[in-house]
């Protein structure tokens, strides 16, 4: 990730420390930081580093830089501070998959990727403080290799009964009102909530759009209660340093591992049942 300036880094560090120290604190006054040129510049650099195709407006990074990046960022700042910013509809692109299936990406315009990135820079440290050890996808200083290592260590410890869950379709059906309610548990800022609402609306009536800059953060937030449930399962079955249950989640791929001892057969059904209940509850009973 492109390195943020010292001031922005310091703000993010302070947000994280506050959120970690006070799990029930609701943050206010965040919107002003999203609107700062410093944040928007860092968000633009992130977007440029990730590159990617243009959105529905067809505007490329080359075109933006020919006109001047500062001009775009100043325009976005003025729209945000004047509360006139409106994201363009996301461009939908189908990516072929095995078996004749397709994966649908929702690709925001570059200008909207910048605003999403600015919002992510401010919200990420708040929610990062709440995320669980077994969640690895799209988090700072965490990789797929870390998730694989956690699974491999569990297998060495004889947790060889594996439950593998694919949650991709679940993300496609996320209810926006439920997601916004989860954000509001930590954010007491009407402007932030409005900005997030119009971002989600630009990508469709429901779901966390695959392709949005802020989508991975929102997906992790939406499944944080599931991660918490699995952390509780680890602790309930703990025997000293050894746990009879382990898990690792990377975005929409979730692996739960249970040890091979026959006396723990009941854990397979119990964990599966509780996981389905948690997912159904998170989705508002629609799953």
Kindly describe this structure.
Strands 3-5-4 form a 3-stranded antiparallel β-sheet, with helices on both faces. It has helices at 6-21, 31-34, 37-50, 61-67, 69-81, 110-128, 144-156, 168-172, 176-184, 190-203, 215-222, 224-236, 265-282; strands at residues 91-96, 102-107, 161-166, 245-250, 253-258. The longest helix has 19 residues, at 110-128. With 287 residues, the protein is mainly alpha-helical. It is 53% helix and 10% strand.
Q: Based on Cα principal axes, name the global outline.
A: globular
Overall radius of gyration: 20 Å
Using DSSP, what is the number of strands? 5
Major β-sheet strand ordering: 3-5-4
Number of helices: 13
**Main beta sheet, described?**
3 strands, antiparallel
Report the helical percentage. Answer: 40-55%
Q: Supply the helix-strand structural class.
A: mainly alpha
Output the keywords.
mainly alpha; 53% helix; 287 residues; two-stranded antiparallel sheet; three-stranded antiparallel beta sheet; 5 strands
State the gist of this model.
By secondary structure, the chain is mainly α.
Write the layout of secondary structure elements.
Layout: H1 6-21, H2 31-34, H3 37-50, H4 61-67, H5 69-81, E1 91-96, E2 102-107, H6 110-128, H7 144-156, E3 161-166, H8 168-172, H9 176-184, H10 190-203, H11 215-222, H12 224-236, E4 245-250, E5 253-258, H13 265-282
């Amino acid at each position: 990730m492109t390195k943020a300036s010292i001031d922005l880094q310091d703000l993010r560090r302070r947000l994280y420390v506050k959120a970690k120290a006070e799990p029930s604190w609701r943050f206010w006054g965040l919107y002003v930081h999203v609107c700062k040129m410093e944040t928007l510049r860092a968000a633009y650099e992130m977007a440029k580093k990730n590159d990617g195709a243009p959105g529905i407006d067809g505007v490329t990074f080359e075109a933006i830089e020919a006109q001047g990046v500062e001009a775009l960022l100043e325009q976005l700042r003025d729209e945000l501070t004047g509360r006139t910013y409106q994201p363009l509809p996301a461009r939908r692109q189908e990516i072929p998959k095995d078996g004749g299936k397709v994966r649908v990406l929702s690709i925001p315009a570059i200008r909207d990727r910048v605003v999403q990135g600015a919002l992510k820079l401010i919200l990420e440290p708040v929610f990062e403080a709440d995320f669980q050890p077994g969640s690895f996808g799209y988090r700072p200083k965490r990789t797929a290799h870390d998730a694989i290592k956690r699974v491999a260590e569990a297998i060495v410890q004889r947790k060889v009964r594996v439950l593998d869950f694919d949650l991709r379709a679940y993300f496609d059906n996320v209810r926006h009102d439920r997601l916004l309610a989860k954000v509001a548990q930590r954010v007491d800022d009407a402007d932030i909530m409005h900005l997030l609402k119009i971002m989600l609306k630009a990508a469709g009536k429901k779901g966390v759009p695959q392709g949005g800059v802020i989508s991975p953060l929102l997906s992790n937030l939406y499944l944080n209660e599931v991660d918490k449930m699995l952390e509780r399962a680890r602790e309930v079955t703990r025997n000293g340093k050894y746990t009879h249950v382990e898990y690792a989640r990377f975005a929409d791929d979730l692996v739960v591992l249970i040890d091979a001892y026959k006396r723990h057969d009941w854990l397979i059904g119990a964990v599966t049942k509780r996981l389905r209940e948690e997912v159904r509850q998170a989705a508002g009973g629609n799953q």
